[in-house]
Amino acid sequence: MQDITAKTEELSRELIQSSAEGLQPISHPKVGQKVWLANFDAEAIILELQGKNAKVDMNGISFNTEVGNLYLPPKSDSEKVKPISTIRATPKVQTELKLLGLTFDEAMPLIDEFLDNAPWPDSVPCASYMVKAPEP
Could you tell me the residue range of the domain that residue 66 belongs to? Predict the structure, then answer.
């Protein structure tokens, strides 16, 4: 059993070392600093430093790890790219209209309002519709 535990720990260390290749270890970690966790292959933020251990937050999960597991985050292409322009988000629009159980007279004003509030693009013509009311 001890042999299996030792082998598991050795494989774990090798895995961490292989995922940390090319990364620079942090020499002086600071609270609030972004770091790369080699054993999770993810970015985290240092919350506390406690001797040789650090409490980090990785996507909302806080835990303790050794300072030796912390590396400078790899530079990503997205950090280098500056946006040329910004796009304003459209307001939330209703994309579904539930008419089950309604009569024609009850549904018609809801359909009109739904179509009036629809965000039609300028390039797409809005088709008109004609519905023949059922005879009483």
Answer: 13-75
